[in-house]
Amino acid sequence: MSQHVDLLIIGAGPAGMAAGLAAAPSGVSIAILDDNPLPGGQIWRDGPQAQLPDQATHMRAQLQHHANIQLHSASKVVALAGRKKLLLEDAERGWVLSYDKLILCTGARELLLPFPGWTLPGVTGAGGLQALIKGGLPVSGERIVIAGSGPLLLASAATAKKNGANVVRIAEQAALSAVGGFATGLWQWPNKAIQAVTLASSAYRTSAHVLEALGSDRLEAVRMKIGSRVEEIPCDRLACGFSLVPNTEIGKALGCEIRDRAIAVNEWQASSLADHYAAGECTGFGGSELALVEGRIAALAAIGKEDEARKLWPERQRWQRFADRLNQAFALDPALKKLAKADTLVCRCEDVPYAELADHDSWNTAKLNTRCGMGACQGRICATAAQTLFGWELPHLRPPFSPARIATLVCLDEAGPVE
Amino acid sequence: MPELSIDGQPFRFAQGTTVAAALMSSGDRCSRTSVSGQRRAPLCGMGICQECRVNIDGLRRLACQTICREGMRVETH
Fold first, then answer.
1. ipTM over 0.95
2. Domains of chain A with bracketed CATH
């Protein structure tokens, strides 16, 4: 089974939805692919304990109104299937989709760094906990420690509190001078300043990071460094994420240039590969406002409406300045590279400890000798951690990009030879 | 309230709940056993880490990207 569209958009977060809605009035055929059950991405994740902003609800409703937009939720890219063709899979079937133009809106994931005890049940990502709570995880009455870096910590804490949790500590690794400098500059982006005030918490500490998650079968406490003191905090959950990493895997596999860990784009949001564009967090962390305007620019450029796209450049620049300040303020403390002990697992799929990796000088030799990165997540967690810990280049992802059914792979035969 | 089963045990859920949220609220609140025998629970919550991979009605699925449905049979590993 195969299908063709004029414009394929991968990712239905703010960038992908904005791209689809900007391109739709031109009448081109559009497919939006997303691996979550509902559109919205991570920031606008829906669920029984989620409260979507009006803009998200409105954009989701608008997607339904355009007959030329097909939304494929719960669908993922499995492999390249030839020139401008991708092999896709959903819960029931595999199929090949070909396209003329592609916009990558693949978003970002959390940077999860290994520390002793991080594999214990009860430990999640910071955004991870927020996503799980929105998806219906009850946390009422639980004592929760949130740690790591970036504004996501506060957003995650707010979701936990709203759902009845007792957030006992929020530990930001950056120093007060950096965070404070960032916060006082927020008047330039009034809605961000309001958000910051809304999310403020007395449990917040700067220059603070996790040392160890404690417990036998399950998390019981967290040992943390707060300034020069070490504190042990009993808790039911630890939500720990060190800001975000762009999801560049599909872009990289297609041949798009990657720069500073993100898909490199020009002023039209065009990647180094002709007819392939990228927008939102996969081009660098910048928040939903930047993602929205980038998605619109990419779509308008892709359908040949450069004049309309150009009008959006000043708005993009405004949010890009916000993003630059953000990334500067929350730069990672090198001490975080030293949290893992010799026996701390780095690869959670193949259970490979830090000591086995540390002897190698590149990801490839480490992988060949230890099986790290050869499990189900394909190194998305451990190779990303290893990039931060050891400075190793991220590997090229090999197909299948995520676990797939044999019946799906058989579709590649029908698609003809892969170039 | 609709109901599904997790490792044979009935579990009632609110509409829209993810299977990951259901797993973390029932039984030993875990999703799988690692290659060296550790019990693991959902970690990233957004379809990246694969810690929440389980068997749902005979197919391997990510619990965090699957919404609970009446009568689903979920098996952890």
1. yes
2. 2-109+245-326 (3.50.50.60), 112-242 (3.50.50.60), 340-412 (no CATH)
